[in-house]
Amino acid sequence: MADDAKRRRWEAATVWPGLVASVAFLVVYSWTVLEPAMPDALYRLLVWVLALIWVAFLLDYVVRLRLAEDKRDFIRHNVIDLLSVLIPLARPFRLIADLFRLPSLRGNSGSHLRRRVVIIAGTFVLMFIYVISLAVYQVERYAPGSNIRSFGDSLWWACVTMATVGYGDYYPVTVTGRLLAIVLMIGGIAIVGTASATIVSYLSEQTQQARERRSREHEHPQGGTDDDHSRPDHRTS
Description:
With 237 residues, this protein is mainly α. It has helices at residues 2-34, 40-67, 71-77, 79-86, 94-99, 110-140, 151-162, 175-219, 226-230. Helix 6 (110-140) crosses helix 7 and helix 6 (110-140) packs antiparallel against helix 8.
């Protein structure tokens, strides 16, 4: 258990630096995609920044893995961290993994769980749409026959696809773009399912609480208690 205690201390000390690094990676990555006409020197500098952030992610993952007592369990519960090291496109999602490590989002009560699901799901939806839009715009803007020529087109396509509307006015034509579209479709189904389950759980809990309140009011209509009825009357005539 000593190793796990060291790992928790490491994670507590690096949670905010990790959040800053994740945001910095997303900003720099967005800059390189949305500003293709930047000077070569600036582009090389930004690439170096992305590489340094990736090295920081890699070192953090290796340290936490070495400090983990059950390494197999650690790998299973830190998939996003591993993906952020292996797949460049998944690195911005490291921000979501770092959110799980914030003390305010921990806890096992129903309110903590709902808060965690709402915040994480909302962040994931925004991040998911934004990152997929960036990646599709990067691979589609210069492709022959492509109709996604601007980031606005890509963002509109991602929102329509995520909402399962499917107008068909914009669509990817490259193999990479279509693979990203499949990822977006699968993610959309998972997000809709999670959101629906959370809403149903919340409504069920609120309904149960309302029934319990009505039951208590029925048993004690004017705020009285059983003790009030059983207390002897000391009034004299």
